[in-house]
Design a protein that fits this description.
The protein has 766 residues and is α/β, with parallel strands linked by helices. 39% of the residues lie in helices and 14% in strands. This is Arginine decarboxylase.
């Protein structure tokens, strides 16, 4: 996918060596070897770096480890007797760096022997020794220059070249390329830590050559158009406020006071704040939950026109029962990695709404691997004239390669044509007039990376996730064969694929989406009948299960709560994404390296050894004992696990959590009206134990899973007291297990003289 070329500055271009793959085991007087060495010498005279490797195996390692070459020359002598291996090397280069020039080095006498499979995948031949080293080096240099000048995407290319001009600036930002920081000791330390290049590229809208994010002009406009083509959108907007700001932009562009909006209850809190700002009347789509507390998709039955009409009729906040919802919002994929068949959800919801928004914050990579086809908003499938307009937000920094707060908004016009200039009015409400240009550049680079090598990058993540999943299953099998009463960590995944145990399935089979679909008759997922192709588990989002709860959700007599495992792993430098009472979520992102998961398996095995031996906490978690010596001194790891498990049994934490998220609180007033009470001071703070039948003034969001338990303007009566009981169970746990406290947005903790916590929340005054 082409874009206007931007020249790569010489100082950066020189960091891209020429890769020469030649048989350096040849005799010293070999004419082919002497020719390769002569070419390398001339290239070095032209100030080009050269990396010479002596075998196809070494070349494979080099290309796998480094994508920054400017040209590859492969000697036919190595290929001739190892054609399959040579083709695999060429295919690897093409997958990693699609446009990298590849040349075969040979004598003209051998040209007719080169098979079609090679000719189709290379960019030319160089004749050894017929052509002079100077002539060949000139051809290589020209090909390399053309390639290098295609590397930079629009905005990043303009930024790189502008930052290299070393002009004096008389505009913001005031540090003027970092020089202001040099005037004090702390400033100099800041400069040295981040580097001059980052500060020289910290520019402002005053630099007209770079365009404007607010007006979407110049190179920024080119970058957004390029990203739209890469991600399959009609229009793309770059956002520097993360997908939180992007979600708010989308809702503000489509929703006004009193408009009914269908909202996935399993949504990010930014969407809840957007409901507040826009004045929407929320009609909640209730997702399924399985017995282990994992939050699943909204079933198709919730999306039908009849179900939508019933939600509108039942809402005490909707005054016009004939009004058509203006927008539907779904989270795709869910936090736990469940992905919708988006073509199905779009067709179903288009009967009831004119706009659909898919929050795909954790899912920006989906378009670039066939495993996910049809399961992301900007899918490659058929578009229909009566489809709703679709928007998608990506938190580009989460699982692609971009800086924090980098985000994209993708738009496909449907029933409601989108005019970018008008959409930009909502965009301007949630963006800065002084955006951080490095964030914009990283978004631009992320799009280029996925266009160049998205298939390779996603395959690598999927490969590693599958390898980890199968390794965990094999370890479980071996442990059970040795001792059927022994234990190991489980993984939430299919038990078998087409009758083959998961551990033994060909990994290539697991590269197909069919292997991960939640089948109606399968018991492993626990969501029942969702339809034959409605929902799929994303293999790179791996949920590890700890003992203590059966697949059916029954609590066992003993167990190992996951917060203890996560804390142990953290003390070993292994930080997980999310921890539930008896499960841990791991993300195999694009940044994963081969075999990295081995340290995770080793950490889990170390935990098992210490648990089985009831090793003293002073030995295995010394920082915890140092911080809370009176509580944990003298305890073993197994002792603490058992105490935690028994506490969860006594407070019925899992039962109350399931009930709390299954029940929807009663809406009393809209989020916007409730916020007005907060601003006017018409609220008060009370203990959670007293909040039955009280209208909460702020959203209450336990982390994890980061899903609203209660929204502003809602109350829980005695019939929904499980919501309060769940919060009280966490309060009790926090009091008994310091160092393992829960994180609940909207809940403040007040401690007595003994350090015991009381959860407090803000409610509307009666």
């Amino acid at each position: 996918m082409s874009h206007s070329l931007t020249r790569l500055p010489v100082d950066l271009a020189q960091r891209f060596p020429v890769l020469i793959v030649a048989n350096i085991q040849e005799h010293d007087d070999s004419i082919i070897l002497r020719s390769a060495q002569a070419i390398a010498a001339v290239l070095r005279e032209h100030e080009m770096e050269v990396e010479l490797v002596g075998s196809l195996e070494e070349a494979d390692i080099a290309v796998s480890a480094n994508s920054a070459y400017c040209c590859a020359i492969i000697g036919w002598g190595l290929c001739e007797n190892n054609q399959d291996q040579a083709l695999k090397l060429i295919q690897l280069i093409r997958r990693r760096t699609a446009q990298l020039p590849i040349m075969l080095g040979m004598s003209q006498a051998h040209q007719s022997q080169v098979p079609l499979a090679f000719v189709e995948n290379i960019d030319g031949f160089i004749w050894l020794p017929e052509d002079s080293p100077e002539f060949i080096a000139g051809r290589v240099e020209a090909a390399a220059r053309r390639y290098l000048d295609s590397i930079l995407p629009p905005f990043f290319g303009a930024l790189v070249n502008f930052a290299g001009t070393h002009e004096y600036s008389w505009h913001t930002p005031g540090h003027t390329g970092g020089t202001a920081f040099m005037k004090t000791a702390v400033g100099r330390t800041f400069l040295d830590f981040y580097g001059e290049q980052m500060l020289r590229s910290d520019l402002s809208v005053s630099v007209g050559e770079l365009g404007s994010l607010n007006d979407h002009s110049g190179p920024i406009n080119e970058a957004e158009k390029y990203a739209a083509r890469v991600f399959g959108a009609d229009f793309t907007f770059f956002s520097v406020g993360g997908s939180s700001a992007s979600n708010e932009i989308v809702l503000h562009s489509a929703v006004t006071d009193g408009d009914p909006v269908l909202v996935d209850r399993n949504c990010h809190k930014s969407l809840n704040y957007a409901l507040n700002m826009s004045g929407a009347v929320p009609l909640y789509l209730r997702p399924r939950r399985n017995a282990r507390g994992l939050i699943g998709p909204v079933p198709l039955s919730e999306l039908t026109p009849a179900a939508v009409a019933q939600k509108l009729a039942d809402s005490p906040l909707a005054t016009d029962k004939t009004a058509r919802p203006v927008l539907a919002v779904l989270t795709n994929s869910t936090y736990d990695g469940l992905c919708y068949n988006v073509q199905t959800t779009t067709r179903e919801l288009s009967q009831s709404v004119d706009r659909i928004h898919y929050d795909e914050a954790w899912y920006a990579y989906a378009r670039f691997n066939p495993l996910y086809e049809g399961r992301y908003g900007m899918h490659r499938g058929e578009r229909h004239a009566d489809d709703a307009t679709v928007t998608v937000t990506h938190s580009t920094h989460k699982l692609l390669a971009a800086l924090s707060q980098a985000s994209m908004i993708h738009i496909r016009s449907g029933k409601v044509p989108v005019k970018p200039a008008l959409f930009n009015e909502a965009f301007m409400m949630h963006t800065s007039t002084s955006p951080q240009y490095s964030i914009i550049a990283s978004t631009d680079v992320s799009a280029k990376m996925m266009n160049d090598a998205g298939g390779y990058l996603t395959d690598e993540s999927i490969d590693e996730a599958i390898a980890f999943r199968q390794a965990m299953a094999r370890l479980n099998n071996e442990i059970q064969q040795r001792n059927a009463k022994d234990w190991w960590f489980g993984v939430w995944q299919p038990d078998q694929i087409d009758g083959v145990p998961f551990a033994d399935v060909d990994p290539q089979v697991l590269h197909h989406g069919d292997a991960w679909v939640l089948r109606p008759t399968a018991t492993w997922h626990g969501f029942g009948d969702l339809g034959s192709d409605y929902c799929m588990l994303d293999p790179i989002k791996v949920t590890v299960l700890t003992p203590g709860q059966t697949l059916e959700g029954q609590m066992e007599d003993s167990g190992i709560p996951a917060p203890l495992v996560s804390s142990f792993l953290s003390s070993r430098g292994i930080v997980v994404e999310k921890t539930e009472p008896y499960s841990i979520l791991l993300l195999f992102s694009l940044g994963v390296t081969k075999g990295k998961w081995g340290s995770l398996v080793a950490g889990l095995m170390e935990f098992k050894k210490h648990y089985d031996g009831n090793s003293p906490l002073e030995q295995v978690m010394p920082d915890l004992v140092d911080s809370h010596g009176e509580r944990y001194s003298g305890l073993g790891l197994k002792d603490l696990a058992e105490e935690m498990h028994q506490d969860m049994l006594a407070t019925k934490m899992l039962h109350n959590m399931d009930a709390a998220y299954t029940l929807l609180p009663d809406p009393v007033s809209s989020p916007r009206a409730t916020f007005a009470c907060l601003v006017k001071g018409e609220i008060e703070q009370i203990a959670v134990r007293d909040m039955v039948d009280r209208t909460v003034a702020v959203q209450i969001v336990p982390y994890p899973p980061g899903i609203p338990l209660m929204m502003p303007g809602e109350k829980a009566g005695n019939d929904k007291k499980a919501i309060v009981d769940y919060l009280l169970a966490m309060e009790t746990f926090d009091g008994r297990f310091p160092g393992f406290e829960h994180d609940n947005h909207g809940v403040e903790i007040e401690r007595d003289s003994q350090g015991r916590p009381t959860y407090k929340v803000y409610v509307v005054k009666q």
